[in-house]
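Dear colleagues,

As part of the handover before I leave the project, I'm documenting each prediction I ran so the next person doesn't have to rerun anything. This entry is a single chain, and its sequence is reproduced below.
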Amino acid sequence: MKTSPAPTLTDPRALIDAAPLGKFQWQIFVLCFFVTLFDGFDTQAIAYTGPAIASAFNLGPSELTPLIVAGTVGMALGAISLGSLGDRMGRRPAILLAVLVFGIFSLATGFARSPNEILLARFFTGLGMGGAIPAVLSLVSEFAPARHRGLVITGVLLGLPTGAIGGGLLGAQLLSHIGWEGIFMVGGILPLIYLLILSARLPESPFFLAVQDLPRHRQKITALLGKVLPAVDEAALRTASFVMPGESVRASFRMLVKPRFLRNTLAVWITYFCNWAAWFMLLLWLPSVLKVGGLPPEQAALGTVVVNSPAILFCLFMAYYLPKKPVRLLLTGTLAFGIAVALGLGLTGGMVNERWMLVFFLIGAAGVGIGLPQIALNYVVLEAYPTELRATGAGWAIGMGRTGSIVGAAMGGWCLKAGGVAGFYYALIVPLLLAILGVLMIRTTTSATQQNNPSESV
């Protein structure tokens, strides 16, 4: 009896890493870019509509704070809850669900008629926004070859500041015509329309399908890899069995806090927490700060545009050079520049009308000194941990960053009320200084190996 040959075991990761970037992959990256763009729009919608909401309901900074914080709390919980669905249900359903959630509740925010209704709507909007990014990053990284992965991920994440800029421009031009309600309606309707395109065009990750190791997935994996690898013989793919080497290996939280890695773990957590706290404090409260400084709400909304634009301009430049330069040196220098900018903004005080060109120039510089480290932070974990522990270390670091964003959003209103415009800017210096201390505490994996028992297993 003639027996069929045993199937060849094939690693989808190795196949994609060896292939050039093709049209099918670029389509996926563009689809994901627009997800982050709508996410960025909705994330900062509360920032540039905050002054108008405060005026509509006669709210002071302390009363406005819960409305601003609600979205960041939702984002933190969404990253844990909805974000984890990407590992259980798949990247595609997690992204579709996240877009559906933040689209519906952003639209609901536009129909809110009390601060409490806004608070609830913003919380649930944050759940969707927080759940979208982890699934998007997983899908993008799994379709990108390793040699291009950093730049591709950075390019897709540029949708966040791009969406924030678009919202700021929309707020500046249309806020007086459609009101704060109209801004949130736009932020809900557009993602819900886009959801139809995603449902039709967004594929599942072949990595996720291979990890599931189910017979019914083989045809799907073959079809996906056939689009990514048009030069590979389709018959060979049909007879292959797809495996993900090393997927059963899992590092643990306990390893992060063992003596060998405890210093680096604390240092990374401090850096993430403090930088995210300063960045979200600035992002979410900047329009309100400018309004207190004397600008009308429409012009104050332009602060969101100004602070995000330099981050976009320098983002890809930073992503290109980070793998080639010492990340701690670049990160320390950028954060120190952020401290200098915060000091300069504080010295201008509330003199926005008298020195508006200087103030807006410094706000743009703050996008570099405070916002750009967000890109460099992605590489801190690479120097802090060995390969076996990087995924776990990165997950907990991002969790600490999300927690910092909640604290920063909550502290912004208090600092503005207690210290005025100058006090708000000076307050940014404290978390930035602590972030620098965290960076300086980090040992590279090379130096850590030299100072610890090299035979200790991870």
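Confidence is low (pLDDT under 50) at residues 1-7, 446-458. Strands lie at 8-10, 240-242.

All the best with the project,
I.
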